[in-house]
Amino acid sequence: MSEIRIEHAKKIYNDITVIDNLNVYIPEGSLFTLLGPSGCGKTTLLRMIAGFNSIEGGDFYFGDKRINNMEPSRRNIGMVFQNYAIFPHLSVKDNVAFGLKQKKADTNTLEKNTEKYLKLMQIDQFKDRKPEQLSGGQQQRVALARALAVNPDVLLMDEPLSNLDAKLRVDMRQAIREIQHEVGITTVYVTHDQEEAMAISDQIAVMNSGEIQQIGRPKELYHRPYNEFVATFIGRTNIIPAELINQEGQAFLQFSNGYQLMFPALNEKENQKVRVSIRPEEFVRTEDGEIEATIIDSIYLGLNTEYYMDIPFASRIQVSEESTFTEDLGTGDKVKLTINIKKINVFNEDGSRNLLEEES
């Protein structure tokens, strides 16, 4: 396995620069996810690492080895695709052994590694079946076993779960996380699904328009996003315009109706227009809450109930709270809310910077 370093990467398609001066470090043995919307450049970057796309600028390294001009077959990578890409005419066992045969592994190594990954992926009982006799999740396990059997330095996974149904995706993402930790191989994983990324990753790079917006652990991205794009892409949030006002050394967030929220974390900041990010769970319903809210809709999701509410300084905010059997709030009902200021984020006027991140 290898660490991956990418320095000043550039990719140009038809005279259009889609990635420019991108830098990223992927630690050895980690599960590192490239996350972002369609067209953000995540799959393009993965294919540059794999050698399937040309590199118009910058340097790519596996450990100390520069791989820019190295053929894909010599990069010692394992690749798992969205559409499985397993061979329909071969048995499960022969699919898993395929890469080893291509590398001309000796008989003992071939048998040993094939059996090891059939068992690790829990598909050894299907080894004599053809892919058409397997479920989608089982086929994806075959693809993963084949990629791992060749003992690659790096494992690359491009939207591997997007063709599976919702429950199977949850089961497979847990399996991928457990197997990656057991094997300890450096893995680069591409997805547009933020929940999937949060569930499996050691670190996530959030991408947009060919640029990395933030790299961090899932908890860091959720609780301290660098900018408004990350805040809105990772989970759900309410973005509410306000003004940061400093009165005799004490900072307040003042909303459009004049409501003020004391916010000591920004006592050192000057007066300015801001955008406040409040996650749905940080609006808390209490009897003595200062914010009057009117429920306009609700969605019961089992563990949680999601409400849409109007408040004096924002319309249709999202509020999430744990469901109870007896609670029966409906459209038009009035409730009172408070805001958990410990977990909100405050961005500058254009949303490009988190003012709290500058203070830390």
From TrEMBL:
Pfam families: ABC_tran, TOBE_2
PROSITE patterns with a match to the protein in the record: ABC_TRANSPORTER_1, ABC_TRANSPORTER_2
RNA-binding is among the record's keywords: no
InterPro entries to which the protein is assigned, alphabetical: AAA+_ATPase, ABC_transporter-like_ATP-bd, ABC_transporter-like_CS, ABC_transpr_MalK/UgpC-like, Mo/tungstate-bd_C_term_dom, NA-bd_OB-fold, P-loop_NTPase, Transp-assoc_OB_typ2
Domain ABC transporter: 4-234
Keywords of the record: ATP-binding, Cell membrane, Membrane, Nucleotide-binding, Translocase, Transport
SUPFAM superfamilies the record matches: MOP-like (SSF50331), P-loop containing nucleoside triphosphate hydrolases (SSF52540)
Single Gene Ontology MF annotation: ATP binding
Keyword Membrane appears in the UniProt entry: yes
Domain of life, source organism: Bacteria
Gene3D superfamilies attached to this UniProt entry: 2.40.50.100, Nucleic acid-binding proteins, P-loop containing nucleotide triphosphate hydrolases
Protein name, per record: Iron(III) transport system ATP-binding protein
Native species: Candidatus Enterococcus lowellii
Lineage of producing organism: Bacteria, Bacillati, Bacillota, Bacilli, Lactobacillales
